[in-house]
Design goal:
By secondary structure, this protein is of the alpha+beta class. It is built from 3 helices and 10 strands. The protein has 2 domains: 47 residues; 108 residues, Sandwich (Immunoglobulin-like). Strands 3-2-1-5-8 form a 5-stranded mixed beta sheet, with no helix packed on it. Strands 4-10-9-6-7 form a 5-stranded mixed beta sheet.
């Protein structure tokens, strides 16, 4: 999608900028020459064209962007819901069975995870660079994001919104484990 936007933007820029530069020099004001511009009529077809073509391009890009945005924001069916609460200076994760963990988010490999974020004090922003996802945690409001890791391992989660003196210490570890290991961990007492 980015490449489409880039190509269209460059084309539109060139279509506008190059004639503008040409006309700036070609028809610049000179004393005694072209004191009064000529009166032109017609050109209705070209006016329709330069209105319709950009409108079609904008509608196309808007519909594609909306579809892409919706796809990125909507968690797949069967995603594991996890409540996330940000607070100065920690993250609390609560699973559907009520189990809680502080700063350690356990997730099964290959399964989508939907995070429902909120905050107890100030605005935080939960960011997982390897998942290329980030969302604000706002007091009194629930926001959401989803991700999926397809490789077992440990990943870092950060707060990306300055939230006070220990902001830099507000880290989370995302532990991606096998489904069996996740199920065993989930059944252990907190």
């Amino acid at each position: 999608m980015f490449n489409i936007w880039l190509v269209v933007a460059v084309i539109i820029y060139l279509v506008v900028a190059l004639p503008m530069i040409y006309f700036l020099f070609r028809y610049r004001y000179r004393k005694g020459v072209n004191e009064e511009g000529s009166h032109e009529e017609g050109g209705f077809g070209i006016e329709i064209l330069w209105t319709a073509v950009p409108l079609i391009i904008v509608i196309y890009l808007a519909t594609q962007s909306f579809a892409n945005y919706t796809q990125q924001r909507t968690a797949p069916p069967g995603a594991l819901p996890v409540k996330v609460q940000g607070m100065m200076w920690a993250w609390t994760f609560e699973y559907p069975n009520g189990k809680k963990a502080v700063n350690d988010l356990y997730v099964p490999v290959g399964k989508p995870v939907k995070l429902l974020l909120t905050s107890t004090d100030v605005v935080h922003a939960f960011h997982i660079p390897e998942a290329k996802t980030m969302e604000d945690a706002v007091p009194g409001r629930v926001t959401h994001m989803w991700f999926q890791f397809n490789k077992i391992g440990e990943y870092r989660g950060y707060c990306r919104e300055y939230c006070g003196t220990l902001h830099s210490m507000m880290l989370a570890t995302i532990k991606v484990v096998s489904q069996d290991e996740f199920d065993k961990w989930l059944q252990q007492p907190s």
